[in-house]
Amino acid sequence: MIYIPPLRGFVRTFIFICVAVFVLQQFALHGPFGGTFRYSEFIKFFGLVPEMLFKGMIFQPITWIFLHGSFSHLLFNMLGLWMFGSLLEDVWGTKRFMRFIFLAGALTGILVGCFGLFDPYSYSLPTIGASGVVFAVLVAVSRMFPNQVVLFFFVFPMKMKYFAYLMIALEFYALYTSNEQGISNIAHLSGAAVGYFLSRGGPGNFKIANWWRNLQDRWHQRRMRKKLRIIRVNEKTTYH
Asked: Which residues contact 19 (CB under 8 A, 6 or more apart)?
């Protein structure tokens, strides 16, 4: 029996935002005041362009994940996020899942931008889509539920961990072969790496990586130190 997760929570919100943004993209392209130039400027402004990112447009590592290049691009990304992201949100809760999504999108975007520094061809080209985030979610779920069975191409049953390995292997293959379809395999692989880096443990013990938790603890301790007051009572020191 195939399990179909309910469409709810932040997964639903994310999908609705992406669909709304895609409608705006089509309006910028086909609307009464739209056209190819306006659409191109829209994509360059909100997509991830390494050249513009390092010139100060630091919002792009967040906004790029909501844009998509075609209906099929949008459909498959949203389907993957729904199927795998719903599982994470059920286990983590909405707030933690939201933090993971935005952090994964931002870090993946930064990695794509850094790659552009070494690739003159992609340095001035926009990258868009939630594919990197979907790969981060895929890897996170494969580490959390490695033996969960999924249907590859909706036909072949396969354990989740092998499915994730296969998808990453296909991305590496496409990366080192001629790919003229405008697909950013670097974004996919960067998302997979970010998903692995942000996760550890197995079922029942899935947490944000230690470095992130330690960073939060240090920030909290620093804020608490600013609130400390020293009160001397009978030559004794009490901290509040």
From this structure: 74, 78
User: Is 48 in a helix, a strand, or coil?
Assistant: strand
Tell me how far apart the alpha carbons of residues 240 and 238 are, in angstroms, rounded to a whole number. 7
Question: Which amino acid appears at position 141 of this protein?
Answer: V
- Domain chopping of the chain, boundaries: 9-212
Are 191 and 106 in contact, with CB atoms under 8 Å apart?
no
What is the DSSP secondary-structure string of 109-177?
A: HHHHHHHHHT-HHHHTS-B--SHHHHHHHHHHHHHHSTT-EEEETTTEEEEHHHHHHHHHHHHHHHHTS
- Report how far residue 24's alpha carbon sits from residue 18's, in angstroms, rounded to the nearest whole number: 10
Fold assignment, 9-212: Rhomboid-like fold (1.20.1540)
Radius of gyration over alpha carbons of the chain, in Å?
Answer: 21
In this structure, of 9-13, 82-86, 115-119, 214-218, the range with the lowest mean pLDDT score is: 214-218
> Over the stretch 64-118, which tens digit does the pLDDT of each residue have?
999 999 999 999 999 999 989 998 999 989 999 999 999 999 999 999 999 999 8
Contacts of 78 (CB under 8 A, 6+ apart): 15, 18, 19, 130
Residues 123-160: tens digit of each pLDDT: 999 999 999 999 999 999 998 888 887 776 666 778 88
Beta-carbon contacts of 122 under 8 Å, excluding residues fewer than 6 positions away, are 50, 115, 116, 184, 186
- The HSE-up count of residue 40 (CA atoms within 13 Å, CB side) is 5
